[in-house]
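#struct-help
A.M.: can someone run this one for me? Single chain, 295 residues.
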Amino acid sequence: FAKSGLTTTILSSGNVSYGNVGYTPGASAAIREHPVLVSDATISRQFRAAVTAPTAVAWQQAIAALSASVAVATRERPADARTLLGTLGRTYPTSTGSRLSDTLDALTALPWVGSSTLSDTIALKPVEATITAKPEAASRITQAKELLAAETSVGTFSSVLVDPPLLTGPHRLDLLATLSSGWIGNSAGWKSAYAHYLKASTTITQSVTIVESSSIIQPSDKISLPVTVRNDLNFPVAEIVRVHSPSGILHVVENRVPLTVEANSQAGARVAVQSVANGDVVLEVSLSTVSGQPI
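D.P.: on it. Structure tokens below:
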């Protein structure tokens, strides 16, 4: 996270260890000098139960349990005010049916509870902590590596675009959605999303191709060899067309011809060649980005 420029990371208390601390620490912590906010797993679970309670009775029961947990944390060290963090999770309903306002009102009405802002919590003196590893299944790690490799391939390929972020931005968002923890418990949905992302990545990297041509008869010693490039992307691409003659019968005069192909279209390049002798030659045609990356 730190290498990505993120200054503070939110972790669950189930992923954090405080050593021999005999009380519930506050939310502000540091792991190897990296600032983190620790979400209390018990309080978060009870908080979510209250916010999403389907009935008034269920809400009252959830509030009672949540209030008791906060009271226990308070009694551990009555003279030491601490800020605890509760989270709603990624499945929190943002539309109807939420009891968020009622839950916050009930909490702040408790005599031992006050409110705090996230910025104030980050500014508190941190408690030293370490990460508690919770390894993923080997199969999921393998699949995640395949997804990351596919994203890397698309990133490399994207240099053919006139404006690469038009492609890489949405595709990276799709990767994050595919790797979301929201698929946990939905194996069929995860399998479908995983396969869809890999297929989409392959489709992207194969979207700029050379159109196969028929045999060409060269009536004179010098001609311009036509090469047609197809672009199935929704964005324009710029590439270099290269022609290689494996035989001395034909000499390629200009072996680096720039070509721009508009979105969802074809364009042709003309490569100057010169015959040295009579005979058949099978030419090798390739594409690369302007920077030299093979396509």
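A.M.: thanks! The two ends are 32 Å apart (CA to CA).
D.P.: also worth noting: The first strand starts at residue 9 and ends at 12.
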